Amino acid sequence: MAATNLKTYTLEEVAKHNKAGDLWIVIDGKVFDLSRFAPMHPGGLSVLLDADVGASPALALLRRVPFADEGLGLEAGQDATDAFFGLHRQEVLLRPQYARLQIGTISGASPSIQARPAGSLSLVPYAEPTWLTSGYHSPYFTEKHHAFQRAVRKFVEEVVLPDALAREEDGKPPSKEVFKAMAETNLLAMRLGPGEHLKGRVLMGGLVEPEELTVLHTLIIIQEFSRVPARGYADGLGNGAQIGLPPILHHATPALRDKIAREYFSGEKYVSLAISEAFAGSDVSRLKTFATKTPEGWRVTGTKKWITGGTASTYFTVGCRSAKGMVVLVIERGPGVETKPIKTAYSASAGTAFVTFDNVLVPFENQLGPDGPGLAVILSNFNGERWGMTAATVSSHRVVVEECLKWATQRKVFGKPLISQPVIRAKLAAMIARVESSQAWLETITFQVDRQHVASRTIQAARGADCFIEELLYEGGAGQCEGCDSGASWLFIFGGRALTLSGMGKYIERFHHTAVFDAILGGAEDVLDDLGVRQAVKGMPKRVRL
Ligand code: HEM
C-alpha cells in the first residue's frame, strides 16, 4: 500500500534527486523515493542511475534522452513508464514493500496504467473468448451465463489466484480454506456438471438453480479456473475428484455415494482416481493391481502411479484386475494403503502420488459396477475427463496469448516495440487463430453434449475433437512457429524470460513446462486419436464409394 501522505511534485523537483543516496524516479505519474531501496534493487543500482537507459528518468527525460524521443508513447520530460514496464510486471508496484516507496504524484499527471479489477474482463484483444467480448454475440451463452461467469471469475481471482501463486512457490497443496470456500459456493459440486448431486444446493449464492445448471456452466467454471497460471495447483485443487468421483456418483450404492459426496462437497475429504500404474497407462486392461474375492470382502494388492491429488486423498477409485476381468473399487485410506509424493517437473502442489495397496480389505459394498466388465466403468470416465482437459487447455492458451500480446507491445527492442517486428506478429496471428478456432469447436461440442445428455456418439466425437485441439495447440499449434519446427512461439516472443521463474515471463515459464501434460493425461494423445478414427470408420456407411 502506498504511503498515505502523498505530496504533489513537479518534474523539475524530482530531477534534483538524481544520485545514489538521494534518488527519486517517476513511473506513470507517481513519484518513488528509491534512495534507500536502490542499493537493494534486484536489477542493480547502476541501471537506476544510468541516464542513457532512461532509468534516472526525471533527469534523463528532462534531457530528452533518445529513449523518450522514439515515439514510444511518452513525451520527453514526462516519466520512465516505458523503461519500467519493459522490465517489470505491473504487480511489482502493487507489492506492499514497493508500493510504500511512493511519496507523491506529479502535478497534473494522472496514472494511466491500472491493474484490472478482480472479476472484470480483460480489454486486451483475444484475451477473452468471443462470447465475452464486447459487441459479439453467442448462440449458446445468455445473460444469465454472463452473470455466472462474472461471479466465478471474481471468486477465482480473489480466492483461488493468491493461494495458487503462493502454493506454486512453496510447493504445498492447495489450502483447506480454498476448498472450504469452493464448498460454500458449491463450486466443488458444480464442477462435476449437471446432475442429481446438485439437488437442494444453493449454487453461487443462488445465481443458478440446480436444475438450470448445464454443461455450459461447467465449461465456464473450468475455463475460469484455468486462467490461473498454475496448472499443477489446479490438479491439486480437486482435479483428482473431478475424475475420481463420477464413477462413485454413477455406480456406488446410495449409502456409499451419499457419504463420499457429502464429505467431498463439503471440502472435508478428497477423492482421487487411481488407474495408471508403472505397468500400464493407456493400456488399462493390463493393470497389475489385483482384487481377489474372499469371504470378508475384496483383498487388493498392487501399486498405482501418477495419482493426481493422491497425497491428500481419503478415497481412491481404483481399477483392479479380478478373476472375471476387471473391477472398480472405492478404497478408503486405512491399513495397507500408503501414498508417497512423486517428484514431478510440473508442480508439487498437484499432490501427485505413488499409491501402494498391500492386501487391503475392501467391503463388497465398495464395488462400482459389475465385476468383469469394469473396463467399461473406467473408459466411460475418460470422456468427461478429456472434455474437461480440453476446456482447460484452450483457456490456458488464451492466457498465453494475452501475456504475449502485452509483452510484445510493452517490450522495446532495437528502440521499437517488439510488436513492430513482422515475425512476432505472424507468431501471434497463428496463436490467435488456433485458440479462437479451438474455442469455437469446443463450444459446439459442449452444446451438443449438453443437448444430448452425454449421448455416447457425441461424446466419442468430442473426444476425437479434443485430441485434435490439444495437438493443435501444443504440438503443431499455438506453440509452434508456422512453417518451421523451431519450437514454441511463446518462447520466441518472451526470449530468455520464458525460462525464468520470476519476472516478466514467469507465467510463460510455468505454462511451458506443463503445456504438454494434457496430451498425456487421460490417455495418450496418439492412442485416443487412433481410437477416434477407428470409431469414425465403424460409423462409415457400407455402401459409400468415391
Ligand atoms: C519503483 C521502482 C522499482 C522497483 C520497485 C523495482 C523492483 C524490481 C524488482 C522486484 C525486480 C526483480 C524482477 C521482478 O520481480 O520483476 C527488478 C528487476 C529489474 N529492474 Fe527494477 N525496480 C524499479 C525501477 C527500475 C527502473 C526505473 C529500472 C531501469 C530502467 C529498473 C531496472 C531493472 C532491471 C534491469 C531489472 C532486471 C530485469 C530482468 O532480470 O529481466 N528497475 N526491479
UniProtKB/TrEMBL annotation:
Gene Ontology MF annotations: acyl-CoA dehydrogenase activity; flavin adenine dinucleotide binding
Cofactors: FAD
Keywords per UniProt: FAD, Flavoprotein, Oxidoreductase
Domain Cytochrome b5 heme-binding: 6-107
GO CC, alphabetical: cytoplasm
Domain of life, per lineage: Eukaryota
One GO BP annotation of this record: fatty acid beta-oxidation using acyl-CoA dehydrogenase
Similarity annotation: Belongs to the acyl-CoA dehydrogenase family.
Protein name as annotated: Acyl-CoA dehydrogenase
Species this chain originates from: Mycena chlorophos (Agaric fungus)
Lineage: Eukaryota, Fungi, Dikarya, Basidiomycota, Agaricomycotina
